[in-house]
Design brief:
Family (chain B): Belongs to the complex I subunit 4 family.
Strand content of chain E: under 5%
Oligomer: heteropentamer
Radius of gyration of chain B: 23 Å
Shape of chain B: globular
Number of strands of chain E: 0
Distance between the termini of chain B: 42 Å
Largest sheet of chain E: none
Chains: A mainly alpha (about 100), B mainly alpha (about 525), C mainly alpha (about 525), D mainly alpha (about 120), E mainly alpha (about 325)
Main location (chain B): membrane
Number of helices of chain E: 13
Membrane topology (chain B): Multi-pass membrane protein
Largest interface: D-E, 75 and 92 residues
Mean pLDDT of chain E: 86
Keywords (chain B): Membrane, Transmembrane, Transmembrane helix
Protein name (chain B): NADH-quinone oxidoreductase subunit M
């Protein structure tokens, strides 16, 4: 039971990491990060229920993770809006103002 | 009498008086600034002469040591409850002996001469002299520090002023020269620091037994403690491989080689010399006087004190290597000096060549050779200071130092040409002048142990004569370009240091005991140590 | 087991506990008041009053922290443990808090002089957002539980995301903020993923309990691989947060995009807090290991390798940098490497003053960095850009500022007699005492390489420019910050003994660093 | 334990039924309904005018702001609900804690209000 | 139903659960059919019209005819539409609408899933519908549809917040998120039901619920005068029917939820009326709520969008939070030991 949850979480995490590093669309990048965080949540909840040492703290941790990732997403989107206003694009490749 | 006052600190920090006064002087009044600065350099000279007069061999070196705890940082001793204290002790410890005294004197003399020669400086006098005096503090401190970290701090203290002095007041390529100087010497001092850190954390541990239970344990950078621990056969460093402080052979060799490279860069030893050429050509002449006259000696001094004295066995094993390096230096320097078209570069390579002789003297590992190395240090310091003093004056007048463009100056500048000739003679080792004594003693010392190398080295000395004569003669004699006809000979402010330096050169040449006398028994302990090691 | 521990570890906060949290409360209360004040003040009114009040809040909080430290040193009660050890008020945390608060105070001081409404439209927000950010850093320093640790981390991160992008009409600022959000998000995801495994394998989030579980299970050896995965994920996460190579790529862009005071905050408080947490976690979790179980050694070695990479990459890539802020970012990468060394060498043989070394260098780093950034902000204001050539001829334009900058540069380069020198020296000595000579060599080498670009600033100030550039006006508050930093840098360089001695004597590894469950 | 699983089996069944109905209905519908596409039928509807430009226009940023507000306040309930459930069993301090928590959120709301995030002025 | 839940899971049991689900599905479809009829009749009555009266006796088959018409109507998908999402959206709108019904209890004995986080489940699943609406608007590639979808999303998320927070008061009163427990714990007298002690929460809940349903006076997303028909302008045939269907299923769900949360569920208003079975009381209250919703539609005009958003954030949200506090303080003072 546990291992299937863990595998799913690991796969989600890897997809998220891949997306965050590779995707061009800034919104997709943010989504990928959320995906990674959700993989974490899955892990935590699975462990708290089926882990070797089941304990409630994992679910508490999940609540915090959810809340914090929401705040992070909110700030991320806000920043992205500001950036879109300034640059008119959400293509990550074009965010190279400072390398020039 | 002198022993009652902290004379060493006084000497070292006396330029500080100058700095403080200079800070409050107006920026534009160059004359006032110069006079103040020159006066400020005379104070340490006077004090060091006094010290020299009072110095009485190895016996009095003890009475001149000063020591105070600077940093006393408690270390965490949580798991060692029975310790009364566990600290890292970093002391302000100054001392003097036969090896450092001549160099201190050399420093103060050259500093005065360089200050006099600095009249050529054209801009930003105030900061020039501030850095200059700071540099002097650093140099004096290096020769007197008896704590490895204090030594390191003074060593680094010479780095920063030099960087500014070269970078602001130098010639065309000054910034590059300053950078090179900084990086190479920084590298050298970093390696040195690494070696020191390794030394202190092993050989620097000292346990003071207060009574049966209580112990004071401290790490110290004190040279005496390190030397004691390094050389005593039953110390924690040497005795048992189980001790956490034990220095294995690999460690010893690593530290030794680190130090060799560190000071080798400063000296400079052959592959590490490139930085110095640029400094010689780009730095302002008065700074080159100091650089060539004193700073290079710091390398030799450090090698002697920390490399050779702390690692007698390793030195013994590598004496041949050192000697070979010395010979390479001599020949390489001489040959390249021969083909240079720029007088400053000739002098730069000549410095490399002469420093090779110092290495030979050290490699001989006997009293004569070591004394020779010391005399060579002092003598080369004076000679190169003199040569660069003249170069500075020449360059100011003719605007060039290319050998091809100079010539026949004996006619328009008879006095300076005369001095130049004399300096050249000293440099090539004419008997009766200081250069001869240094080379002769070093080679004599080396001849005892390595005859073939000595022979090759002598070849190098002959080459020296060739390139020195070639360049000096081509400047003083031969056809004179038209435009040099109306040059003014040395002014008083230039003539005084020239004559003074020449006087010192002759004095050492005629009466070498002024240098060798203080160090008469300076090497005894070391040589004894060496023999014990070899014997046992 | 599960229900019992959950019941036991659940200890609600009480009123008396809440009093111990006074420094944090004060910051939060000030923030709330300032938010409301900012909203209430008319649009046209100046916002400097908010800056001053922020300063007041920080000072009050600092006062309470110091009082707590003195109070705790006087008694022998041991640390104060709140909520089942998830929040600990001990010397480890309190001393770091002093550093963080002081750094923030200096940053606010420098901002009072240089932050103008033209470039930061929401000046009020800029000031009061520093308060939750530093609260987050303080939480991180005090936490003994993965959850509080994470919440603190994110409180710090999220507020700094906003701070980086606070010049909302500037494309650079927004771009920097976006990059920071993305890397920050990835880093916290990595961190959390590692933590989730750690939690899963031990069933606890409390560091002390995890340690115990690891000790018991470590010998069994059947979970080693996952533990390695967990720790390496966490190291990667922290690596991004502290901007240690190879996880540093974001730093130059973000530092350049952010307003200078924020850059200083990122370089100092963010980095310091992440390092502090790393310190606490590694020592707590990995220190007592069963024989035959090399996790601890391997992780400490990995940290040292990370440190080495940071030092080498940071210094070498700074060599070709022409932008002062990017340069400082890369210098920060190298400094993260130096600060990782006392963590990575761990406690070996006679060497156990890691915390003293760490804290001393951190303090020196705070001073020299705030100073350098303060000068940079003034200079770039005069030049209109933050390229290195803005420093050209500073000697003619503002000789005293140039002199102060020399102090900072020397300290950054690790030359005597400055705080930076002794900071590095103590770290070197510690590493040598642990016989990690190779890291000593790398540290020393990277210091030398760094001379080149640090002295590049000096070259610009003293050897370039002919004095025809615009006059540099040093605002009074920034000037005060600069001179406080310069003087303290020198003081740390002249008398480092009392400082590091005080830390070493009042910091007990067993009492203040390790979380032991009773 | 059985009850726990059974409950979620029911939930799953409901979800499956929810999916099934559209699938079935649309499939059945496909058999019944005519299929005579013309170009005109497939144009986008703009009240009978020729459609102008693309339909997926850039819309007001305000929507995003509301989305942000929603995210923040909705997440609040993640903490609010467990708190509400456990409220009767815990002491006074839990009220204070939640007061602080909600107080901070209200300040956030005030902030948004004051910064005119909540003001709707166009489509 | 309750006793099935305690048994070990077998294929047989699963089948039984599935059958019960289908029964409910049929009932709900029936409800929707006649709710529409009822709505038209009620509104007609209120507007002094007759309402549907042609198809079947009393027009009872009117809705059936409508549905049949939709079923056999040609289904067009605009060329510019994003085909996959366009097809997906109606189904996605409907699935959560039906799924939330799983947790609603009808009496103490009659319920389906009895999960401990019932309220949370309802809130979480119903949120998905918002996505479906935005998706439908976006996939249509039509300006009106997009704006309708965005407005709808903005409205729904804005009102979800007060909706969710207003329930917190009820949860505090019962100390549980299980809907059955919440229903059960409400007292025997009608003034002990949650709607009176929680009057603020109740009002906020009702308003927010109406808005969640996109019904008048909050039916801006479908404002014909401004947006043609809102997010489903491009939909026709049975795809359109599913949007409508989910709206009416939500009417069912909300009415049932209101009954359970605030109106005492299956309890009789006074103890002596206990002899009437609980399910009848439930249906009565349920019908009342449904009627109330239709009544609103006939009575109130549509409000402006700025008023709508302003009311959600500036009035309902603070009120809901205030309600939580009042409840907390009340419980602190009078109930907690």
């Amino acid at each position: 039971m546990l291992s299937s949850y863990l595998t799913l979480a690991a796969i989600l995490f890897c997809i998220g990491l891949y997306g965050a590093l590779v995707k061009r669309n800034a919104v997709v990048v943010l989504l990928s990060i959320e995906l990674m965080l959700n993989a974490v949540n899955l892990n935590l909840v699975a462990f708290s229920k089926y882990g070797a040492v089941p304990a409630l703290s994992g679910q508490v941790f999940t609540l915090f993770t959810i809340a914090v990732s929401a705040a992070e997403a909110a700030v991320g989107i806000a920043v992205l809006i500001a950036l879109f206003r300034a640059r008119g694009t959400v293509n990550v490749d074009e965010f190279d103002e400072m390398r020039r | 009498m002198l022993a009652d006052i902290p004379i060493l600190s006084l000497i070292t920090f006396s330029p500080l008086i100058g700095i403080l006064i200079l800070l409050f002087l107006p920026k534009q009044n160059s004359r006032l600034l110069k006079v103040t600065a020159i006066t400020a350099t005379i104070i340490p000279l006077a004090l060091s002469l006094w010290l020299y007069a009072d110095y009485d061999g190895a016996a009095s070196s003890k009475s001149y040591s000063e020591s105070a705890t600077w940093v006393n940082a408690a270390l965490n001793k949580e798991t060692m409850p029975d310790l009364a204290s566990y600290v890292f002790k970093f002391q302000y410890q100054m001392g003097i002996d036969g090896v450092s005294l001549p160099l201190v004197l050399l420093t103060t003399i050259v500093a005065v001469m360089a200050a006099l020669a600095s009249v050529h400086v054209k801009k930003r006098w105030k900061s020039f002299y501030l850095w200059f005096l700071l540099l002097e503090i650093g140099m004096l401190g290096v020769f007197m520090a008896r704590d490895v970290f204090l030594f390191f701090i003074f060593f680094e203290l010479t780095l920063i002023p030099m960087f500014f002095l070269i970078g602001i007041w130098g010639f065309g390529g000054r910034e590059k020269a300053a950078n090179r100087f900084l990086i190479y010497n920084g590298l050298g001092s970093a390696l040195m620091l690494m070696a020191f850190v390794m030394l202190v954390m092993t050989a620097g541990l000292q346990v003071d037994q207060i009574d049966q239970q209580t112990q004071h344990v401290y790490y110290s950078g004190s040279y005496e403690i390190i030397k004691e621990n390094m050389t005593a056969p039953d110390s924690l460093v040497n005795a048992s491989p189980e001790s956490p402080l034990y220095l294995s052979d690999t460690m010893r060799w690593s530290i030794f080689i680190l130090l060799l490279i560190a000071f080798g860069i400063k000296l400079p030893i052959f592959p590490f010399h490139t930085w110095m050429l640029r400094v010689h050509t780009e730095a302002p002449p008065s700074i080159v006087m100091i650089h060539s006259g004193v700073l290079l000696k710091m390398g030799a001094y450090g090698l002697l004190r920390f490399g050779v004295f702390l690692f007698p066995a390793e030195t013994r094993e590598w004496a041949a290597v050192l000697a070979v390096l010395g010979v390479i230096n001599i020949l390489y320097g001489a040959i390249l000096a021969f083909v240079q078209k720029e007088f400053k570069l000739v002098l730069a390579y000549s410095s490399i060549s002469h420093m090779g002789i110092v290495l030979l003297g050290i490699a001989s590992l006997n009293e004569i050779g070591l004394q020779g190395a010391m005399v060579q240090l002092v003598s080369h310091g004076l000679i190169s200071a003199l040569l660069f003093l003249i170069v500075g004056s020449l360059q100011e007048r003719t605007g060039t130092t290319e050998l091809g463009e100079l010539g026949g100056l004996a006619r328009s500048l008879p006095f300076m040409s005369g001095i130049l000739l004399a300096a050249g003679m000293a440099s090539l080792g004419l008997p009766g002048l200081s250069g001869f004594i240094g080379e002769f003693l070093s080679l004599l010392g080396l001849f005892d142990s390595m005859k073939v190398l000595t022979a090759i080295a002598v070849l190098g000395v002959i080459l020296t004569a060739v390139y020195v004569l070639r360049s000096v003669l081509s400047i003083t004699f031969g056809p004179m370009p038209e435009r040099f006809g109306a040059l003014r000979d040395a002014r008083l402010i230039e003539a005084v240091p020239m004559i003074a330096l020449l006087a010192f050169i002759i004095l050492i040449g005629v009466y070498p005991s002024v240098v060798t006398e203080p160090m008469k028994h300076g090497f005894d302990a070391f040589l004894q140590q060496l023999n014990v090691k070899v014997g046992g | 087991m599960s229900v019992d521990t959950a019941q036991q570890s659940f200890q609600p906060l009480t009123w008396s506990d809440a009093m111990y949290l006074a420094p944090e409360w004060i910051l939060i209360v000030f923030m709330v008041v300032l938010v409301l004040l900012d909203l209430a003040l008319p649009r046209r009114a100046g916002r400097n009053i908010i800056g001053w009040l922020t300063l007041a809040g920080l000072l009050t909080s600092l006062g309470f922290v110091i009082w707590r430290v003195i109070d705790m040193n006087a008694g022998a009660d041991g640390p104060i443990r709140l909520l089942g050890d998830s929040y600990r008020i001990d010397a480890f945390g309190s001393m770091l808090k002093i550093v963080f608060l002081s750094a923030t105070i200096l940053i606010v001081l420098m901002s009072l002089g240089t932050v103008k409404r033209e470039d930061i439209p929401d000046k009020g927000e800029f000031y009061y957002l520093l308060l939750p950010a530093v609260t987050g850093a303080m939480m991180m320093a005090s936490s003994g539980d993965l959850i509080t640790l994470y919440v603190g981390l994110e409180l710090l991160s999220i507020t700094t995301y906003i701070l980086v992008g606070i010049r909302k009409h500037s494309a650079q600022s927004a771009e920097g903020a976006f990059k920071y959000v993305v890397t920050g998000g990835i880093s916290s995801a990595l961190l959390l993923f590692g933590m989730s495994y750690l939690y899963g394998l031990t069933g606890a989030t409390n560091l002390g309990v995890i340690n115990q579980a690891l000790q018991m299970q470590g010998a069994a050896g059947n979970i080693q691989e996952l533990l390695y995965v967990a720790f390496f994920l966490m190291i990667a996460g922290f690596g991004i947060k502290v901007a240690a190579a190879p996880f540093h790529v974001w730093a130059p862009d973000v530092y350049q995009g952010a307003p200078t005071p924020v850059t200083a905050f990122l370089a100092i408080v963010s980095k310091g807090a992440a390092l502090a947490v790393l310190f606490r976690i590694t020592f707590n979790l990995l220190f007592f290991m069963s024989p035959g179980f090399h996790l601890g050694e391997d992780i400490f070695m990995a940290l040292l390798i990370l440190a080495a990479a940071a030092m080498i990459v940071g210094t070498t890539s700074a060599l070709r940098q022409r932008n002062a802020k990017r340069l400082m970012a890369l210098s920060g990468v190298a400094n993260a490497g130096y600060l990782l060394v006392p963590i990575g060498v761990s406690i070996k043989g006679l060497h156990m003053q890691n915390y003293g070394e760490f804290l001393f260098y951190l303090a020196a780093y705070v001073l020299m960095n705030v100073g350098a950034f303060a000068v940079l902000s003034v200079v770039s204001r005069a030049a209109g850009h933050d390229e290195l050539k803005g420093f050209a001829g500073l000697y003619y334009r503002a000789p005293w500022t140039a002199a102060a900058m020399i102090v900072f540069v020397l300290s950054l380069a690790g030359l005597p007699i400055t705080g930076g020198f002794f900071g590095k020296l103590f770290i070197l000595l510690g590493a040598a005492q642990s016989q990690a000579y190779w890291i000593v060599a790398i540290m020393v080498a990277s210091s030398v390489i760094s001379y080149y670009f640090y002295f590049g600033i000096i070259r610009q100030m003293f050897m370039r420019g002919g004095g025809d550039e615009a006059e540099v006006h040093m605002p009074a508050m920034t000037g005060i910050a600069v001179w406080i930093c310069a003087l303290l840098t020198i003081v740390l360089g002249v008398v480092p003994g009392p400082v590091i001695g005080w830390v070493n004597e009042n910091f007990s590894i067993v009492r203040d660093l390790f979380i032991t469950i009773s | 334990m059985e009850k726990y699983i059974n409950n979620y089996v029911i939930v799953t069944i409901f979800i499956l039924l929810g999916i099934l109905l559209p699938v079935v209905a649309l499939t059945v519908g496909r058999m019944l309904r005519p299929h005579k596409p013309t170009e005109e039928k497939k144009t986008t509807y703009e009240s009978g005018n020729e459609p102008v430009g693309d339909g997926q226009i850039r819309f007001n940023v305000r929507y995003y702001l509301f989305a942000l507000m929603f995210v923040i306040f909705d997440i609040e309930t993640v903490f609010l609900y467990p708190w509400a459930v456990a409220y009767n069993q815990l002491g006074l301090f839990i009220l204070v804690e939640m007061a602080i928590f909600i107080g901070l959120l209200l300040i956030g709301l005030t902030y948004a209000w004051k910064k005119k995030v909540l003001k709707w002025n166009s489509i | 139903m309750g006793n099935w839940l305690d048994e070990t899971l077998t294929w047989g049991n699963t089948l039984i659960f599935a059958l019960w689900g289908i029964v409910l599905l049929v009932l709900v479809l029936g409800f929707v059919t006649y709710a529409i009829y009822f709505e038209r009749k009620v509104i007609g009555w209120m507007q002094l019209r007759i309402g549907p009266n042609r198809v079947g006796p009393l027009g009872l088959l009117q809705t059936v005819a409508d549905i049949t018409k939709l079923l056999i109507k040609e289904d067009t998908i605009p060329r510019k539409a994003d085909r996959l999402l366009f097809i997906l959206a109606p189904a996605l709108a409907y699935v959560p609408a039906f799924s939330v019904l799983a947790v609603i209890p009808y009496t103490n004995k009659l319920y389906f899933a009895d999960i401990n986080v019932g309220v949370l489940y309802y809130v979480a699943i119903s949120g998905i519908t918002t996505i479906a609406i935005v998706l439908g608007g976006w996939a249509s590639n039509n300006k009106y549809a997009l704006l309708g979808g965005m407005r709808s999303a903005a409205q729904m998320i804005s009102y979800e917040v007060p909706l969710v927070i207003s329930v917190a008061g009820v949860i505090m009163m019962s100390g549980s998120m299980n809907l059955r427990t919440i229903g059960e714990l409400q007292g025997d007298w009608f003034w002990q039901w949650n709607f009176l002690p929680q009057i603020v929460g109740f009002i906020v809940f009702i308003i927010a619920a109406v808005s969640e349903l996109n019904r008048t006076p909050f039916d801006l997303p479908e404002a014909e005068s401004e947006l043609v028909a809102g997010y489903h302008v491009e939909y026709s045939g049975f795809r359109f029917a599913f949007f409508m269907l989910s709206e009416y299923v939500y009417v069912y769900a909300i009415a049932a939820l209101t009954t359970v949360l605030f109106l005492g569920g299956w309890h009789a208003p006074v103890p002596f009326l206990d002899f009437v079975p609980g399910i009848l009381w439930f249906l009565l209250k349920f019908a009342l709520v449904v009627f109330f919703l239709f009544w609103l539609r006939a009575t109130l005009p549509r409000i402006r969008i700025d008023q709508l958003m302003g009311m959600g954030w500036k009035v309902l949200l603070p009120l809901a939070i205030l309600n939580v506090f009042i409840t907390a303080v009340y419980l602190e003072l009078f109930i907690k030991g």
